[in-house]
Amino acid sequence: MIKSLFGLPTKVQHCKKCLLTNQKPFSINETKNFKGSKKSGLEFKDGLCSACHYSNAKDNSVINWEKREILLRKLLDQHRKTDGNYDCIVSTSGGKDSSTIAHILKYKYQMNPLTVTYSPILYTDIGFKNLRAMINIGGFDNLLFTPNGKLTSILAREAFVNLLHPMQPFKFGIKSIAAKTALRYGIKLVMFGEPYYEYGSAKLSLDIENSKPSYDIDWYVNDSDDIYFGGTHYKDILKKYQWIKSNDLYPFMPLTSKDIENSRSQSLQVEYLGWYLKWDPQEIYYYASKNNGYFPDTQRTDGTYGRYAAIDDKMEWLHYYTHYIKFGIGRTRFDASQEIRSGHITRDEGIALCKKFEGEYPKRYMKDCFSFMNLSETEAHKIIDKFRSPHLWKKVGKRWERLQELKEIIE
Hints:
By secondary structure, the protein is an alpha/beta fold. It folds into two domains: 47-60 and 302-409, no CATH class; 65-276, Rossmann fold. Helix content is 40%, strand content 10%. The protein has a six-stranded mixed β-sheet. β4, α4 and β5 form a beta-alpha-beta unit. The protein is globular and about 70 Å long.
């Protein structure tokens, strides 16, 4: 019997509406830096994935958007300050989604947000240009935090070698930087963009209309000693690299109860604007371009057909490719599925795009990523091949072939 490397279903199930499959990991808790909670595949009901069920709820009057905007205004009124101080934090890379959040809060709802940026691992030219455009054209105060590059290189390498997840240290940092900054500045509201179930990370049993608009701050707190980086306990990281001190890891660590007790904003709220306002990623791109000077990339993104999403970090190119290797879901499938759900392209058009671009090798920045992790291309590709699950891949001669290919969703 063929087994899956990651405990996911060995039979690939395709959503009947979009192009996602049950291979998409559902519950991997990266917020608390645990070794990894139990993985399970994207949930399906009546042939539709949970992301499509949520999309249908958004479009079919299940959600009362007028009522939710009233709730948003009440929330913002509770936190609004009139003394010139910042009244909320927006974690932003300068990308289309996060810069739009900041602009809507400031110019539509008259809030005074402080934008906070956790630096990408390897900034692209267009990524830094968009951050500066948000500041100078959109008109925002911004704090740019850049973690220790030597340490980030090691953590990215550990995560790549052990988990084939080179962006894990960045994911850890960006999850907590907004809350840590809010606690430091005495700000009691943090606003993110789309809720986690926009892309399928929700149980089908979720009551969409009565779901919660926020995470309790306890979601971000981990007081245990059970903290891992790249699948390795942090104390073993300290032993392996003796120059690293525990304090060096702070930017990547979760919040603790002590952080909250020592802060001036113990009642911190973490909210999602996409719970209150209907979220459409493509419309968000148009909004960011018009109001924040957001620029698309100068060329198509390797592995997909677009050039405006997730373009600020060179590691994104490698990240989506490793996701394709591990789970058979690459950048094209993610992009096309989102646009199918939003009604911008048909499923047949999405299939055609996947046939053309899905799984494309992201040669544009690959050498930069490997070099940052101090790996040769040969070493890196040997590591990549170790994560090809036998239910998705078969080696024929010197070439890898995909099993359960895209053609199955057409037949």
